[in-house]
Design a protein that fits this description.
The structure holds two protein chains of two kinds.
Chain A (H helix, E strand, L loop, with lengths): L1 H7 L6 H41 L10 H5 L3 H34 L2 H12 L6 H12 L4 H8 L13 H25 L3 H10 L3 H12 L1 H16 L3 H6 L7 H10 L4 H26 L9
Chain B lengths: L4 E10 L2 E11 L4 E5 L6 H9 L6 E6 L2 E2 L10 E4 L11 H11 L4 H14 L15 H13 L5 E5 L7 H18 L2 E6 L2 H7 L2 E6 L2 E6 L1 H6 L4 H6 L4 E4 L1 E2 L5 E3 L2 E2 L6 H6 L4 E5 L5 E3 L8 E13 L4 E6 L5 E6 L15 E7 L4 E4 L3
Parallel strand pairs in B: 3-8, 3-9, 6-7, 7-8
Antiparallel strand pairs in B: 1-2, 1-4, 4-5, 9-10, 11-15, 12-13, 13-14, 15-21, 16-20, 17-18, 17-20, 18-19
Classes of the chains: A mainly alpha, B alpha+beta.
Chain lengths: 299, 361
């Protein structure tokens, strides 16, 4: 590209030269984006479009809505509700657990924060499968947690912590927590400490200053984290499949069953399309709730 | 509201580093005091102690006779204006200024009236509904000021509040702040490293260096009678000439006996490590030694002349090699006085403008 610029600069700098230079800049940006666009186009838009088409094709090969009609069956309705329950609880849990951690990280010195950040990111370095089996070991009937609770006298009998709703939620919470902490941390990092001092000099107690100033300014991170965790939970497969022990049925598992057990691509596609539509609707709704677009616009 | 502030024996150590060394400062009710010093001198630390964000190692601050240090920051009733404004970005102009009033649970109508009053005071009434990111630097500064005065604080603190503004706007704001202070008479502590700003705005200036209070005086006294070499050097342009003390108590520079001012400080300052501090604008040039009895006259050689628009700076050299600047007003009457490079001249200073300062700190 340096060659192109050098060649062009030998000409006169008239209006057409500047127009050419501007076009060239636009093109170079387009070129930078091209590989990504190609990958997204080939690997995302085409398959999703294909699934979308498939979902409207019935068993006989003709256009039909039977795949969507099937979704009204109780088994799907129950799965649908369970999926959203788990996603909701996991998201809420990750906010409650992640917000204080992110706050602490944002207030630490850069050095201390870097060290603590390793512990947040560390789980990313091990596979989800390994971590999920680790939870299985910890949570099972004769697992570490149950034996501790019994030996401490908190409970008499081991309680079922795995192969159920609780186990699934704990496992997913663990896997998804960094996705809440990281965006929260990066948005909290940008909040100038002087804002809190200013609030304090205005007469706000530390608690008041937090709720009036810090919390609203951390909303972009909270929004990003919430969206990430919620949407990732909706499509979670591995953890609920292993820690749910077959008792927790999530949307993604229904899709898998339809494909691998029944080879019913049409039904699986309809499930996928519905999940996508609902996800987009939730994103739009969350955007309204958090008012991210208006955050820096005052009233 | 006018309250006196009395700072007593205030010290702050960060580890082994002494940020503040036994500061004693008495601020009169309604006074505008500037803490002036280079960066790292401790002036901002002192302001942070006043605001409550830094806990001192020892000492006491009495506001209207009552201890301030034991109060948490949000109960100190101190208005604070930051260098970077620190306006809440998620609130508009009205909400920012109304915030301290909301915290005090004032009725809505009173909040409205007070915010409008404060905005009038900083001449920003038409911006009441503006988001703060749609304001210029000067406007943000005014909003920050309005937010700091709207709840009628006992003390107003300003931390390098004007230094982010460009020169013209800064000078305009200095005058405006001064006028505002004349209306409100809130006891004000202003922190700056800009000596001109300090001279322009203050009732009194506290010069701080290395955590210690060096001199606390009116702007005129700070400028005309600096007590130490540091103060003379930091405030205004100064040339220092080494003073030799004679056995009979007389002082001389380059072998020429000095004629000293009448005021007492001059003689007291004449210690072993003394310097003659000369300001460029208080010097005059003549071809021959001045015959006047009230004038000290030193011979030198002109080196160069620098045109600065509103003044001409003549740089001259003494026999020992030290250079000195003389400021001439570039008016017609002075035309004949401008020497050529290499020309021998005499530099004259009235004995009352001959300041003796001590060399330490």
């Amino acid at each position: 590209m340096t060659g192109m610029i050098a060649a062009a600069s030998s000409g006169t700098a008239d209006a057409s030269y500047f127009a050419r230079a501007e076009r060239r800049e636009a093109w170079s940006f387009a070129l930078l984006a091209l590989p990504g666009l190609v990958v997204i186009g080939l690997l995302l838009i085409v398959p999703v479009g294909w699934l979308f088409v498939l979902s409207f094709i019935g068993k006989d090969g003709g256009v039909s809505l039977e795949n969507y009609a099937r979704l009204a069956q109780p088994v799907y309705v129950i799965t649908f509700v369970t999926t959203f329950q788990i996603a909701g609880i996991v998201t809420l849990g990750s906010i409650l657990l992640g917000y204080p951690v992110a706050y602490l990280l944002s207030q630490l010195s850069p050095r201390a924060a870097a060290i603590c950040m390793i512990f947040v990111i560390l789980p990313f370095w091990t596979s989800v499968l390994v971590r999920t089996y680790a939870w299985l070991v910890l949570l099972q009937r004769r697992g570490l947690i149950n034996s501790w609770l019994v030996s401490l006298g908190i409970i008499n009998e081991p309680i079922p912590l795995v192969n159920n709703f609780i186990g699934t939620t704990i496992g997913m919470l663990h896997v998804l927590l960094p996705f809440m902490i990281l965006p929260l941390y990066s948005s909290m990092k940008t909040i100038d400490g002087d804002y809190l001092k200013a609030a304090s000099s205005c007469g706000a107690s530390p608690m008041r200053a937090f709720w009036d100033v810090f919390f609203p300014l951390s909303r972009p991170g909270l929004f990003a984290g919430t969206v990430l965790v919620f949407i990732l939970s909706l499509g979670f497969y591995l953890t609920p499949a292993l820690l749910g022990g077959g008792r927790v049925s999530m949307w993604s598992m229904q899709i898998a069953t339809n494909v691998s057990t029944y080879s019913n691509w049409g039904a699986a596609s309809a499930l996928g399309v519905l999940l996508l539509v609902v996800t987009i609707a939730i994103l739009a709704a969350l955007n309204k709730v958090f008012r991210v677009d208006k955050l820096y616009g005052g009233r | 509201m006018k309250v006196p502030v009395s700072i007593r024996g205030l010290s702050k150590k960060f580890g082994s580093f002494e940020a503040l060394k036994d500061i004693n400062l008495d601020i009169a009710p309604g006074e505008f005091v500037t803490l002036l010093g280079p960066s790292g001198s401790g002036k901002t630390t002192l302001l942070q102690v006043l605001a409550g964000f830094v806990t001192p190692t020892s000492g006491s601050i009495l506001v209207a006779g009552e201890e301030l240090l034991t109060r948490p920051p949000h109960q100190r009733e101190i208005g604070l204006v930051f260098q970077n404004y620190a306006l809440f970005p998620h609130m508009n102009v009205f909400e920012n200024i109304a915030y301290p009033l909301k915290l005090r649970r004032l009725p809505r109508s009173e909040i409205e009236t007070r915010v409008r009053g404060a905005l009038d005071m900083v001449r920003l009434s038409q911006f009441i509904d503006r988001p703060v990111d749609k304001l210029s630097g000067g406007q943000k500064q005014r909003v920050a000021l309005a937010r700091a005065i709207v709840f009628e604080p006992r003390i107003l603190l300003m931390d390098e509040s004007l230094s982010a503004l460009d020169k013209k706007l800064r000078e305009q704001m200095q005058i405006e702040l001064r006028h505002l202070h004349e209306r409100l008479h809130t006891t004000t502590v202003f922190v700056t490293h800009d000596q001109r700003e300090a001279l322009t705005m203050s009732d009194r200036i506290a010069v701080i260096n290395n955590g210690a209070l060096i001199q606390f005086d009116t702007p005129r006294a700070i400028y005309d009678r600096p007590r130490t070499r540091f103060v003379a050097d930091f405030v205004g342009e100064t040339t220092f000439l080494p003073v030799e003390l004679g056995t009979s108590g007389g002082a001389s520079v380059f072998g020429t006996p000095l004629r000293l001012p009448d005021h007492a400080g001059a003689v007291a300052a004449a210690q072993s490590d003394s310097w003659l501090a000369l300001r460029p604008e208080k010097l005059a040039l003549s071809p021959a030694a001045s015959p006047e009895t009230n004038v000290n006259s030193f011979s030198a050689v002109a080196r160069e002349t620098i045109f600065q628009g509103d003044s001409l700076l003549v740089i001259a050299g003494f026999p020992d090699g030290q250079s000195i600047a003389v400021r001439l007003v570039p008016q017609e009457a002075n035309r004949g006085l401008v020497p050529l490079p290499g020309q021998p001249i005499h530099i004259n200073v009235h004995r009352n403008d001959s300041i003796l300062v001590s060399g330490d700190v």
